[in-house]
Write a structure and sequence with these properties.
single chain; 243 residues; alpha+beta; Rieske Iron-sulfur Protein; 21% helix; binds FE2/S2 (inorganic) cluster; binds fe (ii) ion
Length: 243
């Protein structure tokens, strides 16, 4: 049975409508988590956030808690921040430097490669117990483009390079402004929570229509700073770099 569409996209009539249920239904949200965030490459972090061996950041990516860290060999790794014993959060700190991550519940310890390296009372475990099989799990795919690291929960997804495709030009645009060719994420964080559906945020990012009304102060500031802002007859209202 064909799935219900929540979109009316009639090019001939120049009509595009979206059912409001797409923004409020928990069932649809669950499906999106599985079909969008469960299949796409999602940004994890930047190499400069974990410069030294042992540096880590813990955060939620694609709805999953992960540890983004650098091992003793200098390699960047990503593990699910979920203990293999009873599923507690292993690393509760947001960032720092560690040799091991010790679960707060029963003290199972994992190294920077996610390997289970210690647990209290190991001699009491018998039979099939094999600590080598009980390391932290990792996302199916983990890869980077110009020091920007992404994960993907789908083992069959296309490569990161193919997935990013033309979006690489935007990363290049930013990175190529650095004389050294590399970038540093500077310390300090600005965070905000939005009590709204994730699609509203994505759509708002490409909604240039609201710039003149909502962001007139910013537009004037940019214009006064010498940034060339053209108001096209149709299409986008994006500032140009002036090159
Ligand atoms: S849940 Fe982590 S050690 Fe038990
Ligand atoms: Fe207790």
């Amino acid at each position: 049975m064909a799935e219900k569409s929540y979109i009316i996209d009639d090019r001939e009539k120049n009509l595009f409508l979206l059912d409001r249920i797409a923004y409020v239904s928990e069932e649809l949200h669950d499906q999106e988590m599985e079909r969008v965030f469960g299949r796409c490459w999602v940004y994890v972090g930047h190499s400069s956030e974990i410069k030294n061996p042992g540096d880590f950041q813990s955060r939620y990516v694609a709805g999953r808690p992960v540890i983004f860290c650098r091992n003793q060999a200098g390699e960047i790794k990503c593990h699910f921040n979920t203990c293999r014993h009873r599923g507690a959060v292993v690393c509760v700190e947001r960032s720092g430097n560690k040799r091991n991550f010790r679960c707060i519940y029963h003290s199972w310890a994992y190294d920077l490669n996610g390997k289970l390296v210690g647990l209290p009372g190991e001699e009491a475990y018998s039979g099939e117990f094999n600590r080598d099989e009980l390391g932290l799990r990792s996302p199916a795919r983990f890869d980077s483009y110009k020091d920007f690291w992404f994960l993907c929960l789908d083992p069959d997804a296309p490569s990161l390079s193919d997935y990013l495709a033309g979006a690489k030009e935007y990363i290049d645009l930013v990175v190529d402004q650095s004389p050294s060719g590399t970038m540093d994420i500077i310390s300090g964080t600005q965070e905000y929570d939005i009590a709204g559906n994730w699609k509203l945020m994505v759509e708002n990012s490409v909604d240039d229509y609201h710039l003149p009304s909502t962001h007139s102060t910013w537009l004037k500031y940019m214009m006064n700073s010498g940034v060339k802002i053209e108001m096209p007859k149709e299409g986008l209202v994006l500032p140009k770099t002036g090159k």
